[in-house]
Amino acid sequence: MKIAYQFDSNHIHICEGQLGTNIEFAITIINEELMLLGLKEVQKIFKNRATTDVLFLLYGQNQYRVIVRNETYLEFLLELKRQGLLLEVGGN
C-alpha cells in the first residue's frame, strides 16, 4: 500500500486557482485495490477543511493526478507518510 511520487519538473505543476495556488502532481498506484482504500482515508482528512482541496484525477493506467493547495502540500505528504502510504519523494 505505497505511492510512488513523480516529484520533478515534468510532473509537478503549480497553477493559480480560485482558492489560491495549487500544486498538481502525478502518483502511481502500486496496488490499486488497497491503494484506493488508503487514498480515500487520507482524502477524508482533508475533504472538509476550508483551507484545502485534495483532488484525485485519473491520469492513466494506475496513475492519478493530485491537486493540493500549496499551503497544505507538505501537510498532505506528511499525512500520507503517517498513514504508511508514502513510498518515496524524489526529484531535484
State the main characteristics.
six-stranded mixed beta sheet; alpha+beta; 39% strand; 92 residues; Alpha-Beta Plaits
Q: Can you walk me through this structure?
A:
It is a single chain. The protein has 92 residues and is of the alpha+beta class. The chain has one domain: 2-Layer Sandwich (Alpha-Beta Plaits), CATH 3.30.70. It contains two helices and six strands, in the order βββαββαβ. Strands 1, 2, 3, 4, 5 and 6 form a six-stranded mixed β-sheet that branches. The longest helix is centred in the middle third of the chain and has 16 residues, at 32-47. The protein is globular. The relative contact order is 0.27.
**Global morphology:** globular
Helix content: 25-40%
CATH class (first level) name: Alpha Beta
Number of strands: 6
For the termini, the CA-CA separation is 25 Å
The average pLDDT score comes to 60
Order of helices and strands: EEEHEEHE
Secondary-structure class: alpha+beta
CATH architecture: 2-Layer Sandwich
Question: How many whole angstroms does the radius of gyration measure?
Answer: 12 Å
How would you concisely characterize the structure shown here?
The chain has 92 residues and is α+β, with helices and mostly antiparallel strands. The protein contains two helices and six strands, in the order βββαββαβ.
Question: Strands, helices and their partners?
Answer:
Blueprint: E1 3-6, E2 13-17, E3 20-29, H1 32-47, E4 54-60, E5 63-69, H2 73-82, E6 86-88
Parallel strand pairs: 1-6
Antiparallel strand pairs: 1-3, 2-3, 3-5, 4-5
